[in-house]
Amino acid sequence: MTVEQQRLLVFAGSYAEAEESGVYVYAFDEESGTLTLTDEFAGLKNPTFLNVDANRKLLYAIAETVNDAGVKVGEAAAFSIDAAKGTIQLINREITVNSTTCHIQRDANSRFLTVTSYHGGMIGLLEITEDGAIGQVLDVQQHEGSSQHPERQDRPHPHSSFYSPDGRYLLVSDLGLDRIVTYALDAANGKLVRQSEVALHPGAGPRHLTFHPDGKHVYVINEVDSTITSFSYDSKTGELKALERVSTLPASFADENSCAEITISADGKYVYGSNRGHDSIVVFAVDGETGLLSLVQHISVEGGHPRHFALTPSGRYLLAANRDTNNIAVFTVDKDNGKLFFTGKSVTVPKPVCVVPIYLTL
Questions:
Q1: DSSP letter at 35?
Q2: Count H helices, E strands: the chain?
Q3: Domain locations in the chain?
Q4: Over the chain, what is the mean pLDDT?
Q5: Residues 248, 208: Cα–Cα separation, whole Å
Q6: For residue 1, is pLDDT > 50?
Q7: Cα–Cα nearest to 27, from 347, 354, 351
Q8: Cβ(170)–Cβ(197) under 8 Å?
Q9: Cα pseudo-dihedral 96, 309, 165, 316, rounded to 10
């Protein structure tokens, strides 16, 4: 029995004009912590968020374009990945929803994609064809309402959609409504069916979320007021119940800040969140019984505006994408206490917004 060889590739999406490179591919050496550029793709405007299907070696990116009427709309592109060469090749690109998008996610069975439109206040469900291409738009769910912040929350602003571990539900964080809306995925009919919703505290501005590996807890990072809300999660009904909220900032910090990304270690022991303004990663330890959080560390991201970050699949490293300083900074992770340490290594990437490290078989 042979062990399949794997290669760790890192895919980065960025703000870019269509004639500029916007999607980047790097090989990552886990012994040295070094990123080496292997490919880049030009042709998409603002391919900011990515999703990778490792099994089928496919990459999905959002982008923006204009329709026949000259109105800005969402677009999605599919790429095939050559793991050995570290290169990508465009399969197809299609218009998605009638507004620009900020997030893309794939369901557990790789049959559907969901795109999220912050400016349009909507979620789109897309078909993935048998050959992995972007298919037709199957369903669009429009949000309605507002919350308390006069500028940030005057209308719906869904910022992300994440499928539950079992693939039955889709959780949509709506920054403009201070709500997380849960949809059931009706795979047979290609529909999103509104299941339930939970209200966060006014002015929170939920942006992204992450599921605990135990499937019983969800952690949501709130962009507007720089907090994380912990929830219990009922996998049978898809319902959330708030447990606590904690600040992502040191008590002494009084300047402007907004949060962006959140993730959890594979063992479920540590939650990580990013601060833009304080320009840091905050680390929390997770109580194994209650799921509640306790502060471990704040560490500089060695750059400005950490729009996104990700742990490598092994959990040995964290990569921080700093949009305003045009760099991806590399940190090691101490698995005994969750703490991060800057390696001194960083690569220049124009306006990075999303970073996806993933093992691919050769």
A1: E
A2: 0, 28
A3: 66-73+96-353
A4: 97
A5: 14
A6: no
A7: 347
A8: no
A9: 140
Length of the chain: 362
- Residues with Cβ < 8 Å from 237, sequence gap 6 or more? 195, 196
d(CA 78, CA 24): 14
Q: What is the CATH number of domain 66-73+96-353?
A: 2.130.10.10
- SS3 assignment, position 164: coil
Edge to edge, the sheet with strand 191-199 lists 158-163, 169-174, 179-186, 191-199
Instruction: Using the CB atoms, write b or e for 93-128: b if 16+ within 10 Å.
Output: bbbbbbbbbbbbbbbeeebbbbbbbbebbbbbbbbb
Torsion sign across C-alpha atoms 295, 298, 301, 307: positive
- State percent of the chain over pLDDT 70: 99
Report the candidate in 47, 42, 38 with the shortest Cα–Cα distance to residue 21: 42
Structure tokens at 67: 């329709």
Residue 221: C-alpha distances to residues 54, 112, 186, 282 (Å): 26, 25, 27, 11
pLDDT band at 347 (very low <50, low <70, confident <90, very high): very high
